[in-house]
Amino acid sequence: MPEEKRIDQLITKEFRTVNQIRGPLLFVERVSDVAYDEMVEVIDPSGKVRVGRVLEVDNDVAVIQLFLSTEGLDISRTKVRFTGDVIRLSVSHSMLGRILDGLGNPIDGGPAILPERQEDINGMPINPAVRVEPSEFIQTGVSAIDGLNSLARGQKLPIFFGSGLPGNELAAQIASQARVISELEEQDEPFAVVFAAIGITHRESSYFIEHFRSSGALERTVVFLNHADDPTIERIITPRAALTAAEYLAFVHNLHVLVIMTDITNYCEALRELSVAREELPARRGYPGYMYSDLASLFERAGRIKGHKGSITQLILLTMPDDDITHPIPDLTGYITEGQIVLNRILNQKGIYPPIDVLPSLSRLMNAAIGKGHTREDHRSVADQMYAFYAEGRDLEKLVTIIGEGSLTEQDQRVLNFAKRFEKEYIGQGSANRSIQEMLDLSWELLSTFPDQYLKRIPEEMIRKYKRG
Questions:
Q1: What residues have CB less than 8 Å from 350, skipping those under 6 apart?
Q2: Which of 36, 176, 261, 303 could in theory staple to 217 by disulfide, Cβ–Cβ 3.0 to 4.6 A?
Q3: Residue 153 in contact with residue 181, Cβ under 8 Å?
Q4: Where are the beta strands (DSSP E) in 192-301?
Q5: Are 215 and 187 in contact (CB under 8 A)?
Q6: Contacts of 23 (CB under 8 A, 6+ apart)
Q7: Span of 12-16, 250-254, 363-367 with lowest mean pLDDT
Q8: Alpha-carbon span 210 to 207, nearest angstrom
Q9: Do β-strands 256-262 and 192-200 pair in parallel, antiparallel, or remain unpaired?
Q10: What is the pLDDT of residue 318?
């Protein structure tokens, strides 16, 4: 037998031993030399080819996950061909400005993407020894984030919101406004955006695309769309395909890439659906026990690599079922990521946009991204003082409902008025795009109502320089 044929035979194997079809899963018996995550072609009796991947191999039985419906498949006449390779995405710099489906195929009516490479969608783990700590400040134009929960280049930060809250609107606004700001490296440039829509409605996808077009961000955006009526299995692939495109743009073309993934809750529901089909033992609330490691395999693909100018920053949108932040999905996400931005329903009912609740919100990398050389030397002190006054003001609002405002001291009145102005003027900025300097100047304007002795978290020299100056 010629060598080429022998090699080809080893790579491509065909079986007609399908013994069970369960939902999106095929069970093929008497297989050999089949690997986990291997690409599979399933040929139905009419000759139509459907694509899938190997989900599990147990002795001589392979479990295959199809990306399309199993409707019309006949157990006795269906052929399964194992390709000997993993699922790969065609990547190119020309992907920018294109709208793709969840598997990376163009759906915008444009030409096919001419690939510069074929990349494994599972990515390559970043060696911890060559990871660079996120430090450059990212200006999102949103005061509640830039001022009190600052985002660093290479960070992964989730946005938690309840059903009906404007999480998607906030993500679209950040995508069109985000810039890398660093006085040390003299950077001020917009991000390339990779947007992964996971199980969203057609109305939501139309909103995002129209927003990107109207803001001029579409030409530097790659959009991956998986709609709610698309196959559930495609939702498992969509974020991986998007992150593969982001890694190529960041580490080959040296771009700063902002990856926005919405909605991770839909991804986890698809994960649970697959787990049920495989008859696995459920963990908390029916979700698979490996959901933590599965989510980590997505989120840990953010970061920076020594010797590469590019970076990947992740904004992860996540709907909290029943507004429950202790639900397994936000709970596990919070452990993996470096902070959280939480939207508040009461602020939204007051007409405040974006309704970011700064008290439970957090950015664990804020200190590395702000201060002299990044934003301004007074940033940390001003943020601490405003946070303290706002937390005190929220407590006073509850107290006022019991004893009335007439029982408050003069300082209590100042704090209460500050909390109201803070929500209305600082958090509630609408769709405005504020620079970091404008945000800090507004902060000092709000703090100027307090005598110097009450600004206990700000050094005296900064009070003299910024408040009086």
A1: 423
A2: 176
A3: no
A4: 192-200, 221-227, 256-262
A5: no
A6: 70, 273, 277
A7: 12-16
A8: 5
A9: parallel
A10: 94
Question: Which comes out higher in pLDDT, residue 76 or 424?
Answer: 424
Mean pLDDT of the chain: 89
For residues 466 and 437, what is the distance between their CA atoms, to the nearest angstrom?
12
Model confidence pLDDT, tens digit, residues 271-310: 998 888 888 888 889 999 999 999 999 999 999 999 888 9
The two structure tokens encoding residue 350: 């007051």
DSSP secondary structure, 349-360, as one string: HTT-SS-B-TTT
Pick the CATH number of 89-369 from 3.40.50.1820, 3.30.70.970, 3.60.20.10, 3.40.50.12240: 3.40.50.12240
Do residues 65 and 59 lie in contact, with contact meaning Cβ atoms separated by under 8 Å? no
Amino acid sitting at position 151? L
H/E element, 144: helix 143-146
pLDDT band at 48 (very low <50, low <70, confident <90, very high): confident
CA distances from 418 to 301, 357, 415 (A): 40, 16, 5
- Record: fold of 9-85: Elongation Factor Tu (Ef-tu); domain 3 (2.40.30)
Phi, psi of 305 (to 5 degrees): -120, 135
What is the three-state SS of 275-324?
Answer: HHHCCCCECHHHCECCHHHHHHHHHCCCEEECCCCCEEEEEEEEECHHHC
- Tokens matching residue 341: 């931005």
Q: What does the alpha-carbon distance between residue 425 and residue 441 come to, in Å, rounded to a whole number? A: 12
| Mean pLDDT to the nearest integer, 96-104 | 93
Q: Which helix (H) or strand (E) holds 26?
A: strand 25-28
| pLDDT tens-place string over residues 305-337 | 998 889 999 999 999 999 999 999 999 999 999
At residue 456, the 3 state secondary structure works out as coil
* 154-193 burial: b if 16+ Cβ within 10 Å, else e: bbbbbbbbbeebebbebbbbbbbbbbbbbeeeeeeebbbb
**pLDDT beyond 80 at 432:** yes
Phi, psi of 349 (to 5 degrees): -70, -25
Cβ pair 39, 51 in contact under 8 A: yes
Domains of the chain, by residue range, sit at 9-85, 89-369, 379-467
Q: Can you state the angle between helices 234-251 and 291-299, rounded to 10 degrees?
A: 30
User: How wide is the angle at C-alpha 420 spanned by C-alphas 447 and 141, nearest 5°?
Assistant: 70
Whether residue 4 is predicted with pLDDT greater than 80 in this model: the reply is no
Residue 5 pLDDT grade (very low, low, confident, very high; cuts 50, 70, 90): very low
Residue pair 264/291 in contact by the 8 Å Cβ criterion: no
Q: Dig out the tokens for 256 from the structure.
A: 């700063």
